[in-house]
């Protein structure tokens, strides 16, 4: 099964089975479904677990029932317990009945066994309740991780930049694409990196909500110490090792993962002794001498120039001035270091010696207030607000009506930063140097079983080289906006101080406002990194202008990674295939065993008589068999299938109903004499005995002591008065009617003299074991013998 679906993030999602290497090859086997199908599977799994719990309880009941089964006489608690075990089909109902039985019994020994069973039932309930809850973890443990169904996978190819016949300059088109990416990353960083619940953006889109970092706010100067305004209050942010799999969602084995490290180190820069006034066609400007740069008329010894503070605020202080509101002006210059030297072809300037770094790329950002008025003083080292206020004329007021405001100390304030990169293959033991981007790539190439020339991968025929090529397409092929592009693209919007900016008036600034601004840049940069890996794997077919700049990977290993980009989607759910198989296979086995126990027990009993009593007790204690036993004992109905699930009667048999004359103790109604159509007047001769038709019915049908008592006859069998007795005998075929003659007088005498109707079979060897004798209810023996004698001489 393999298909695709689209969710609200506009990424097509792979539907089917795939391996999530976060959980290993076995546990990581994952099934992705759309949410509707996933909910159905979750519900089915929960129902299946609940069903299995009932079958497991049947196994427990069978085991305990067989263990306790005995043919010895036991009290009522034993029989009630056995009946509960036989007929409770869930641990809950079993526990409830057992608790009620505990409440009514007085035997401490019986209670012990009952409590044991309640404990077992409780364990079953708890275990399967937890199992039912954990069944949803088959999905939630895996989470919402899904694979993008890759389309147009590739990288932005610098070789395709430039004019194309009949089209616009694709480089300019790309600038617009970069701006769009930076803006999207800024939105994500603002809502998702700030741990804010405000906003409607889906912060669960990426494999990690936010990339973690280590921030040091008291870092040393990243340049020569004399260049920084502070030697110990600077900012250094270290990403640590970003895992391409865990953090960026590039699904791969542990040994086939890349670790990426990025370090940003910034400090406000001194301007004293690094500025001068220059005259230009637009007036006098302040030049900043941090290196040499190429101007339209040739190289110059400064990197930036800005209008004076007075010029920037001239319109703001003019009473008759009208125009747009003022905003900060922010510009960033950068230096690319390659082979530990400045690459002048790609750099904006050649830095001075005190700013040079061989192991890092460099950038410098100039902040000009550009007419923004500060309502309060601030000691922030980058905003550089004057501690002394000036009078500011109110709009639409006389000149004498002013308010105190604060202005910047300098036309532009520089902030210098260095950026360092490091790449590792598999683990931190196989890492290149922490250096500029180009040198970090060149230094790490050998660890990826690859070679590089001018930061371009030459050999990508191995898994490591393919991975390296894929990862570097983000950094080296214009897919990933550089840090300097963030303030350049967003301008004043990249400053967190804008939150307190209203109508060109800046509210209170923090003493570390510049550090908050740079941290925001960092968050945008990290969000861009997360987004860029998705941009490699998928580009919408509608983005035709961007597609013209893209090329596919030549390496099969890199192309394979295109189909292994993970994101998170709430419109889908992923299940552990191992968890599903484990749940359903174990559940199926439990269910199968529960249904096989009784047939196997029956087979063992029929062939070898194995545990015959335990088997027959189990078979005869079903609800319907207990009903049969109750009716058959009263002679109600002609029954068959005495050991099967459903006992039956003869066609047309009518069973007795309840006798509710005592509402507190209803019993089955005893049959009456006219329950049958047999005529009592007809007799059958049998030896020396004489039976009525009703007696013959009792001899062939179910025994009925009450009826027999009313129908027993006296007959002459010898010279001495003897009385035939009809009794119940427990034989291998069940209870049957039996007669005795040889010792009937002796039995008669003893029964009546002792006023008993039950006898000990060991005392009467001529009666079958278990017989219940029924004697005629006569007032005295003399009358019985007189009548007997009269009948004998007749």
TrEMBL record:
Bias-annotated ranges (Basic and acidic residues): 690-706
KW Transmembrane (keyword) present: yes
- Spans through the membrane: 40-64, 112-134, 575-597
Q: Which UniProt keywords apply?
A: Membrane, Transmembrane, Transmembrane helix
* Region described as Disordered: spans on this chain: 669-706
Keyword Transmembrane assigned: yes
Name recorded for this polypeptide? Uncharacterized protein
Q: Say which species the protein is native to.
A: Xylaria grammica
Please name the taxonomic classification of the source.
Answer: Eukaryota, Fungi, Dikarya, Ascomycota, Pezizomycotina
């Amino acid at each position: 099964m393999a298909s695709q679906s689209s969710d609200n993030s506009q990424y097509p999602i792979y539907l089917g089975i795939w391996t999530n290497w976060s959980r290993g090859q076995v546990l990581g086997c994952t099934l992705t479904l759309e949410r509707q199908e996933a909910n159905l599977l979750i519900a089915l799994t929960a129902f299946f677990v609940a069903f299995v719990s009932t079958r497991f309880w049947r196994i427990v009941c069978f085991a305990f029932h067989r263990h306790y089964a005995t043919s010895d006489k036991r009290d009522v608690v034993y029989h009630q317990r056995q009946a509960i075990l036989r007929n409770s089909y869930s641990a809950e109902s079993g526990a409830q009945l057992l608790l009620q039985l505990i409440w009514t019994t007085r035997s401490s020994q019986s209670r012990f066994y009952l409590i044991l069973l309640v404990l077992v039932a409780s364990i079953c309930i708890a275990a399967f309740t937890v199992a039912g809850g954990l069944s949803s973890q088959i999905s939630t443990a895996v989470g919402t991780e899904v694979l993008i169904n890759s389309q147009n996978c590739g990288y932005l190819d610098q070789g395709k930049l430039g004019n194309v016949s009949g089209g616009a300059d694709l480089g300019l088109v790309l600038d617009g694409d970069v701006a769009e990416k930076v803006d999207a990353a800024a939105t994500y960083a603002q809502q998702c990196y700030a741990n804010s619940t405000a906003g409607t953006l889906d912060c669960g889109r990426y494999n990690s909500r936010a990339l973690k970092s280590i921030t040091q706010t008291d870092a040393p100067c990243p340049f020569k110490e004399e260049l920084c305004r502070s030697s110990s209050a600077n900012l250094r942010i270290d990403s640590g090792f970003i895992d391409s799999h865990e953090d960026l969602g590039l699904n791969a084995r542990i040994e086939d993962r890349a670790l990426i490290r990025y370090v940003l180190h910034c400090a406000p820069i001194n301007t004293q002794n690094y500025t001068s006034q220059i005259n230009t066609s637009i007036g006098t400007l302040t030049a900043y001498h941090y290196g040499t740069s190429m101007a339209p008329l040739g190289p110059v010894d400064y990197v930036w120039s800005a209008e004076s503070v007075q010029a920037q605020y001239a319109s703001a202080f003019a009473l008759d001035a009208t125009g747009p509101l003022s905003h900060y002006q922010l510009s960033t210059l950068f230096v690319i270091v390659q082979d530990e030297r400045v690459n002048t072809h790609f750099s904006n300037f050649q830095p001075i010696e005190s700013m040079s770094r061989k192991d890092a790329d460099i950038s410098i950002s100039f902040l000009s207030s550009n007419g923004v008025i500060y309502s309060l003083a601030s000691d922030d080292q980058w905003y550089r607000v004057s501690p002394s206020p000036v009078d500011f004329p109110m709009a639409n007021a006389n000149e004498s009506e002013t308010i105190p405001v604060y202005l910047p100390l300098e036309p532009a304030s520089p902030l210098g930063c260095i950026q360092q990169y490091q790449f590792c293959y598999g683990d931190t033991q196989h890492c290149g140097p922490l250096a500029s981007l180009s040198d970090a790539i060149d230094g790490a190439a050998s660890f990826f079983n690859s070679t590089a020339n001018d930061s371009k991968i030459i050999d990508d025929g191995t898994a490591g080289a393919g991975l390296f090529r894929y990862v570097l397409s983000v950094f080296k092929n214009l897919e990933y906006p550089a840090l300097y592009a963030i303030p350049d693209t967003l301008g004043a919007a990249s400053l967190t101080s804008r939150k307190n900016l209203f109508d060109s008036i800046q509210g209170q600034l923090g003493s570390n406002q510049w550090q908050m601004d740079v941290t925001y840049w960092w968050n945008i940069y990290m969000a861009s990194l997360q987004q860029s890996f998705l941009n490699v794997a998928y580009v919408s077919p509608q983005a035709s202008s961007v597609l013209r700049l893209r090329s596919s990977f030549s390496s099969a290993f890199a192309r394979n990674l295109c189909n292994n980009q993970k994101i998170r989607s709430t419109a889908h759910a992923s299940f552990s295939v191992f968890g599903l198989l484990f749940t359903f296979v174990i559940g199926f086995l439990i269910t199968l065993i529960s249904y096989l126990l009784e047939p196997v027990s029956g087979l063992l009993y029929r062939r070898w008589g194995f545990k015959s009593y335990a088997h027959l007790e189990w078979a005869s204690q079903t609800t319907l068999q207990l009903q049969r036993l109750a009716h058959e004992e009263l002679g109600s109905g002609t029954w068959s299938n005495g050991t099967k699930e459903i006992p039956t009667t003869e066609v047309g048999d009518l069973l007795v109903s309840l006798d509710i004359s005592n509402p507190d103790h209803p019993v089955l109604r005893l049959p009456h004499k006219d329950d049958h159509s047999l005529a009592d007047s007809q007799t059958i001769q049998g030896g020396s005995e004489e039976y009525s038709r009703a007696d013959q019915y009792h001899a062939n049908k179910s025994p009925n002591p009450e009826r027999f008592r009313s129908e027993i006859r006296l007959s002459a069998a010898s010279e001495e008065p003897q009385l035939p007795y009809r009794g119940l005998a427990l034989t291998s075929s069940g209870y049957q009617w039996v007669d005795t003659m040889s010792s009937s007088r002796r039995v008669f005498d003893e029964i009546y003299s002792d006023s008993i109707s039950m006898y000990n079979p060991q005392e009467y060897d001529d009666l079958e074991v278990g017989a219940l004798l029924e004697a005629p209810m006569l007032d005295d023996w003399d009358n019985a013998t007189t009548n007997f004698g009269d009948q004998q001489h007749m």
